[in-house]
Amino acid sequence: MQQDLYFFGGGKAEGRGDMKDVLGGKGAGLAEMTNAGIPVPPGFTIATGVCLEFQKEGGQTPKRVTESQVTYLARLEELMGKKLGQADDPLLVSVRSGAKFSMPGMMDTILNLGLNDESVHGLAKKTENPRFAWDCYRRFIQMFANVVLNLDKDIFEEVLEELKKARGVESDTDLTEEDLTGLVDTYKQIVNDHAGQSFPQDPSVQLAMARDAVFSSWNNPRAIYYRKQNKIPDDLGTAVNVQVMVYGNMGDDCATGVGFTRNPATGEKEFYGEYLVNAQGEDVVAGTRTPQPIAGLEQAMPEVYRELREITTRLENHYRDVQDFEFTIEQNKLYLLQTRSGKRTGTAAVRIAVEMVHEGLIDKAEAVLRVPAEDLNQLLHPRVDPAKRPTALATGLPASPGAASGHAVFLADDAFKQAEAGKPVILIRAETNPDDIHGMDAAEGIITSRGGMTSHAAVVARGMGKPCVAGCGSMRVDAKAKQCSVGDTTVSEGDWVTIDGSTGELMVGRADLIEPEIGGEFGVFMKWTDEFRKMGVRANADLPRDAEKAQSFGAEGIGLCRTEHMFFGEDRIRIVRDMILSAGEFKNLEIELNAAKSDLKSRVGAEKVRVEERLEKIKEAIKEPSEKYLGSLSKLLPLQREDFKGVLKSMAGFPVTIRTLDPPMHEFLPSAQELSVEIAVAEERGESSPELDDKKALLSRVEHLHEQNPMLGHRGCRLGVTFPEITAMQAQAIIEAACELKQEGHDVFPEIMIPLVGTHKELENQRHVVDQVAKRTMEQRGVEVDYLVGTMIEIPRAAITADEVAQSAQFFSFGTNDLTQMTLGFSRDDVAHFLPEYIKKGILKEDPFISIDQIGVGDLMRVAVKRGRSVNEKLKIGICGEHGGDPESVFFCHRLGLQYVSCSPFRVPIARLAAAQAALMARKPAEVSAMA
Amino acid sequence: MQQDLYFFGGGKAEGRGDMKDVLGGKGAGLAEMTNAGIPVPPGFTIATGVCLEFQKEGGQTPKRVTESQVTYLARLEELMGKKLGQADDPLLVSVRSGAKFSMPGMMDTILNLGLNDESVHGLAKKTENPRFAWDCYRRFIQMFANVVLNLDKDIFEEVLEELKKARGVESDTDLTEEDLTGLVDTYKQIVNDHAGQSFPQDPSVQLAMARDAVFSSWNNPRAIYYRKQNKIPDDLGTAVNVQVMVYGNMGDDCATGVGFTRNPATGEKEFYGEYLVNAQGEDVVAGTRTPQPIAGLEQAMPEVYRELREITTRLENHYRDVQDFEFTIEQNKLYLLQTRSGKRTGTAAVRIAVEMVHEGLIDKAEAVLRVPAEDLNQLLHPRVDPAKRPTALATGLPASPGAASGHAVFLADDAFKQAEAGKPVILIRAETNPDDIHGMDAAEGIITSRGGMTSHAAVVARGMGKPCVAGCGSMRVDAKAKQCSVGDTTVSEGDWVTIDGSTGELMVGRADLIEPEIGGEFGVFMKWTDEFRKMGVRANADLPRDAEKAQSFGAEGIGLCRTEHMFFGEDRIRIVRDMILSAGEFKNLEIELNAAKSDLKSRVGAEKVRVEERLEKIKEAIKEPSEKYLGSLSKLLPLQREDFKGVLKSMAGFPVTIRTLDPPMHEFLPSAQELSVEIAVAEERGESSPELDDKKALLSRVEHLHEQNPMLGHRGCRLGVTFPEITAMQAQAIIEAACELKQEGHDVFPEIMIPLVGTHKELENQRHVVDQVAKRTMEQRGVEVDYLVGTMIEIPRAAITADEVAQSAQFFSFGTNDLTQMTLGFSRDDVAHFLPEYIKKGILKEDPFISIDQIGVGDLMRVAVKRGRSVNEKLKIGICGEHGGDPESVFFCHRLGLQYVSCSPFRVPIARLAAAQAALMARKPAEVSAMA
């Protein structure tokens, strides 16, 4: 026969910790703790099956249960030596729901059950605090009326508010015992008036009604909704837990407190916590009295202290994790009210995991699974001392983690100059562009009012490992006036400001920063992760110093080296601009030339002569810019060769994936708007000069090259296909660099990556250019270089046609930034206009630029892997979008079977840990749920 | 035993027309014609199998074939009464390849085989044209040397050029008989010197060598490449056709000509063609002599004429299609050299198809399959008289079909004014924007220097059915100076220009235009298409007049009514701007409000007070713009209601799909660049006024709303989700319009379409708004309206997650313009920078904005249909991208199982025909190949 009730108390429980089906999560936990000898307040659990019968019977608890309950209550009363609701020393209980799966706040709870017009006096006497007793009683009436009798809470709240107004007080706590006594009368009257019955004084009636109310709450609308959302079956039912209430405020032999078995901030193995004598749990939390460090309890109640230490140590050993516990001492008797795994900082998590392995408490695999990968972030960046955190003036996007303080500056040049002079500065801009690089490099941190998580500022700052807040929309920046404002608050140049790139906050003033401390445990821990992970971890790095930083963090190569960032140096941008301008012109003429040539075919006589003349003129015109253009390219070649030598050398022994030129041309050009204004003003002044004419010509070219949607425009391999000379120059620079390094004795493995491929023919075309140049260069240099040619998979069509693309690719690298942009139709630079609202309204669960949209983008990735490998079983596939550093995305990549992930240097440890966890989760299904 | 040789001639052939495997395509055709009693020059075919043996034997023709060949040649000589290469009246033959599948120009051909030092005299005598005979001989030597002996053609060409230079003549035809005789000697010497053998004088040796050369040419590199490209198997081999040469230039009893069995321009059933007495085929084509109308032949050679008419009629009946034939009369004997289906204009195609059905020659299904759908375009737009076509000055994209002439104007206002004054004008712009609508409407045609096939100008012009050339990059437009230039040619305001939107050409001057003539056959034909097609055809139309035009073309509803075009009217754009500007401001404040509210929670004491004060200020600030914003919306409501009444009424009885607001906000705003210039100039002048301040404020808002990639920005349902009031207003206007029309007795079926959905939650959100408003409105009006709510499928993610999206959608409509943009990562406004080169380089076969990219975009469509119908088997799915009017895309949509296509009004007949063809092709697989 099925058992309906399960007792726990007196060191023994009828249930067990693995009986969640029957006892619900809370009931099973109470049984487990009781059996482990932990002194939890005793009680009994009514099984989930009873709830189902209750529902089936249309809201009737079976008679046999009601009868058993009398026996169980008697047993509890006997154990406690008190009777429910008796007048002098009343037994009071809580009645709580507890389903198999946690449904926080969805169902009902009733506290202090057993209070009535008589027992309230007993509670007052025992606690020597009549005010407390009457407050408990009026709260109990309100809770009971609301939960059991379905009265509106507001009726009671209104009465309470009126009373406070009448007494001229602000807070509930300012009401006197007399006020509360009167309030109890009023509340009872309200119940009488609205519920059609009086408030039940019989504690056993209270208990029966409360139990049934909890059973009913299984089917309240919010519980049903919650189950639907969380895919919890409707036919589980909830258990009901009836548990003795204990009080820490019954005199000086009472106390209450909270604690941790290890320091949750540092991870140090120390008994850590606070307590208050003669107090309730609320008092510890509310801050009305200052709690004592738990060490004080050793003097005050040495016996109890020893018992607490012994018990909590047992708890930690039992659960094999740091415990965060609440306790109450009622008349020298210790009760543990709650215990759970303790939340901890990243630093603490690592230290605890490592020490627990050394103590033999857990194994390495479990240690690795214990530390949330994202939490390592805290170990890698400075942060604001939480104890002295200034108020946030405004909040933007947390674009690059870490905190920084400095003097506000509004121009890159100012940032550069002041930093040179030794002043720490924060660069504040509406948005940044390549011209600002030197200022960004000089600043401690960057904040912009526009742009998203992958705006220029964000990407560059993350690459530099520098704090950045982006898209801080409520901040208005006036660079001319060298100030910015949020509401009425104005920040002028030189003012101290602090930004927190981990939270997106802007603060006025200088904050105390805590520098990252990477202790010895961190190194040990990271080594363990490498024992488990299956995927390689590379870094996205453009410069040797970034590559070195990445390697120090354990990167095993570079997954993305963006060559365009190399073009932005002061000395180069001019050459690049020259190249683009003349190339564009040259290209345009070439199109005209071809048009004229084809026109010529269909012409005779005088017309033919006319077209021929035109053809000659075009040919003449082409000559000069063409040379200018090729000249620019040849000026870039030696510079690029040195760039690549630097990066390849700093990652010698590992593969380095170098992407050919990717961004739209106009990113290298001045702004049309600014040029127009300069020209209009000069004309208004009546100026006229060759420079002005040049400016006008420049404007005309810039406007010609202007694109409505540059992200979907003439960029990526489209540049390489239309200007093969650029790809050829870059390939030559890469192979020359590799040849020279090999001759110097370095092992180098360049992987040349073609961006923005949408059709296999683009890749074929570009690979042909690269292979031709490589062959010629290696022959000239007499050196063989192991190089690969592969492609980004970042356009949906490339994913869909991966079987075609794979025929020319030696590797795939998912560019999930662009793939997300195109699959979702989201411009990452512009999402700030609607994404925050989308997340607020629940349309998206999270920013898809941070964590891969597994259903949409992920489906294309799955298709690409399947189709790509259908052609080339061993195709090397990785990811170099910024998602490569996001733990959830790393798990997903592992499930897809990728060979590596690549992320910004500062996220390499996170990716290593996530990769290890992904491998372990695949290995140990049981531990997956432990992680969740 | 397998037969190696097949004779044809004397009214009988050993082979048959269905023996392409054995005889190759050409050989089978010759056999078929011979058996049908058509007098083709006789000959024999050496089977494809021999070619395979030849290859296997390493280039040896089997002995048994060589032996049979002697017999067959003898039979041919007997039939013709001449011997190969005999001195006085020589038999001459051609030797040609002919594989199962046509491989034009890939393999070798030799003409006039049998000529040698003796027979050349015979030919001279018979043709009474020694110059011709010697020219044939020297060409034969050159061809033989090149094809059979592998000598370089250039060696001979150089000698020829030198000779012409020496003689001081320009053309080959200016060389005399003596020149040619000398040239033959030189050519023979060249063969001696370079081939290591003398030119073979023995005709049977010539024949054997030529045959083997043709067999060898099956494996020449260009044939192999061609087969690879066209997926033709390598193991088929080619046949060799040896056929008697006939001459139309042997005297006045000889002639040559070409003809059609019906007029290919008009389709009229008349014997149509030209001929020349005593001439070669070349003479007819080259235009050196003026050919006579074929009717003249009736007088000149009545017998032969009658035979020709009889034979060609037989040919038409045999092939059941218009025949385009070539004939030669050699000494009163008629030979048909070639016959094939005749190319015809769209007009002719329709007339011929209809008349052939009436004649009982073909059935309706075949008639429908016979007319290429795209060719109907010619019936629907004016075109330039091809006889008097001006030279093209420049060529852009053929953005909207039809031709137009008018006076050049450069500003929309000028276009409007001059058109009002009765002058036809062509509007020339760098690009158009919504402010230009009135000018575009007034112009005969539009040409722009920027933008692609789906730029504003292109889309609007197609909607208006007006010719448009877009992206004419070589044209530079200077609107200020009211002129444009291409190279040195400048067009000023008032100059006559002509544009051809079907070819993309810009011409200087006024052209003669041929107006479309839609005869009675066209109507009959279109009715037949409706008998076969399975898919509905709707039109994309925003205005009642477009809807009416569409209906007159047979549209069965509107598949896309864009509401934003309704916003661009002079009176409305101001209201819309007001709305956007205040809405944006309001929205910004709301975000700040929420930030402040959430900030408040974590603050206490003085800080809390500060945040509270801020909160109050924001609340205060929100009030005013919010009212302004809602005020603008309520001003738009009645205007929109009237818009919708117009469109719904004009399509009464049919469904009308109305899309909620789609474009990015900034499309309604002035340009930041222009505003900056105005402000800078005003400031330079020292001006200061409230208007200037307003302008500055406007600039700041415009810049705030600026987006890097508006196509992927805050648009589509993202507007509706963030500003639900806009969707609500539009839904209300639609339902109110429908209610009023129903009360007036009209049947209306509005389908409300939510654009740019990427996640099912967006659709849920918007559908909820629409349904709420619809319910309320219908209750208020007391009318029930049958309305649907569905979504565009235009974001890759929507296609991928169609099973989720379909749960809230009552219909899907593929927005293949945007779907193409995002799947390929192509901004349609910017592709002009690289797409032409992509097509030139073969990276793409065609513009994916014209014909659906079936491999990439099509795969997503397939996924969407499958997943959408997995949830809702009967889900209505259509397409409203511009591909809906492209025949190939219509075929594809039929194969996907869509219920309807929707296209611009002027393409409705094309879509109807294509839909019928798609249904027929699915039904009759044999006829699919007939179409190809």
UniProtKB/TrEMBL annotation, chains A, B:
<feature type="binding site">
    <location>
        <position position="562"/>
    </location>
    <ligand>
        <name>substrate</name>
    </ligand>
</feature>
<comment type="similarity">
    <text>Belongs to the PEP-utilizing enzyme family.</text>
</comment>
<feature type="binding site">
    <location>
        <position position="816"/>
    </location>
    <ligand>
        <name>substrate</name>
    </ligand>
</feature>
<dbReference type="InterPro" id="IPR023151">
    <property type="entry name" value="PEP_util_CS"/>
</dbReference>
<dbReference type="Pfam" id="PF01326">
    <property type="entry name" value="PPDK_N"/>
</dbReference>
<feature type="domain" description="Pyruvate phosphate dikinase AMP/ATP-binding">
    <location>
        <begin position="21"/>
        <end position="60"/>
    </location>
</feature>
<dbReference type="InterPro" id="IPR002192">
    <property type="entry name" value="PPDK_AMP/ATP-bd"/>
</dbReference>
<feature type="domain" description="Pyruvate phosphate dikinase AMP/ATP-binding">
    <location>
        <begin position="73"/>
        <end position="294"/>
    </location>
</feature>
<feature type="domain" description="PEP-utilising enzyme mobile">
    <location>
        <begin position="423"/>
        <end position="504"/>
    </location>
</feature>
<keyword id="KW-0418">Kinase</keyword>
<keyword id="KW-0067">ATP-binding</keyword>
<feature type="binding site">
    <location>
        <position position="815"/>
    </location>
    <ligand>
        <name>substrate</name>
    </ligand>
</feature>
<dbReference type="InterPro" id="IPR013815">
    <property type="entry name" value="ATP_grasp_subdomain_1"/>
</dbReference>
<feature type="binding site">
    <location>
        <position position="817"/>
    </location>
    <ligand>
        <name>substrate</name>
    </ligand>
</feature>
<feature type="active site" description="Proton donor">
    <location>
        <position position="880"/>
    </location>
</feature>
<dbReference type="InterPro" id="IPR018274">
    <property type="entry name" value="PEP_util_AS"/>
</dbReference>
<dbReference type="GO" id="GO:0016301">
    <property type="term" value="F:kinase activity"/>
</dbReference>
<feature type="binding site">
    <location>
        <position position="794"/>
    </location>
    <ligand>
        <name>substrate</name>
    </ligand>
</feature>
<dbReference type="InterPro" id="IPR010121">
    <property type="entry name" value="Pyruvate_phosphate_dikinase"/>
</dbReference>
<dbReference type="Pfam" id="PF02896">
    <property type="entry name" value="PEP-utilizers_C"/>
</dbReference>
<dbReference type="InterPro" id="IPR000121">
    <property type="entry name" value="PEP_util_C"/>
</dbReference>
<feature type="binding site">
    <location>
        <position position="818"/>
    </location>
    <ligand>
        <name>Mg(2+)</name>
    </ligand>
</feature>
<dbReference type="GO" id="GO:0005524">
    <property type="term" value="F:ATP binding"/>
</dbReference>
<keyword id="KW-0808">Transferase</keyword>
<feature type="domain" description="PEP-utilising enzyme C-terminal">
    <location>
        <begin position="521"/>
        <end position="918"/>
    </location>
</feature>
<feature type="binding site">
    <location>
        <position position="659"/>
    </location>
    <ligand>
        <name>substrate</name>
    </ligand>
</feature>
<dbReference type="InterPro" id="IPR036637">
    <property type="entry name" value="Phosphohistidine_dom_sf"/>
</dbReference>
<dbReference type="Pfam" id="PF00391">
    <property type="entry name" value="PEP-utilizers"/>
</dbReference>
<dbReference type="InterPro" id="IPR008279">
    <property type="entry name" value="PEP-util_enz_mobile_dom"/>
</dbReference>
<keyword id="KW-0460">Magnesium</keyword>
<feature type="active site" description="Tele-phosphohistidine intermediate">
    <location>
        <position position="456"/>
    </location>
</feature>
<protein>
    <recommendedName>
        <fullName>Pyruvate, phosphate dikinase</fullName>
        <ecNumber>2.7.9.1</ecNumber>
    </recommendedName>
</protein>
<dbReference type="InterPro" id="IPR015813">
    <property type="entry name" value="Pyrv/PenolPyrv_kinase-like_dom"/>
</dbReference>
<keyword id="KW-0547">Nucleotide-binding</keyword>
<dbReference type="GO" id="GO:0050242">
    <property type="term" value="F:pyruvate, phosphate dikinase activity"/>
</dbReference>
<dbReference type="GO" id="GO:0046872">
    <property type="term" value="F:metal ion binding"/>
</dbReference>
<feature type="binding site">
    <location>
        <position position="818"/>
    </location>
    <ligand>
        <name>substrate</name>
    </ligand>
</feature>
<feature type="domain" description="Pyruvate phosphate dikinase AMP/ATP-binding">
    <location>
        <begin position="306"/>
        <end position="359"/>
    </location>
</feature>
<dbReference type="InterPro" id="IPR040442">
    <property type="entry name" value="Pyrv_kinase-like_dom_sf"/>
</dbReference>
<feature type="binding site">
    <location>
        <position position="794"/>
    </location>
    <ligand>
        <name>Mg(2+)</name>
    </ligand>
</feature>
<keyword id="KW-0479">Metal-binding</keyword>
<keyword id="KW-0670">Pyruvate</keyword>
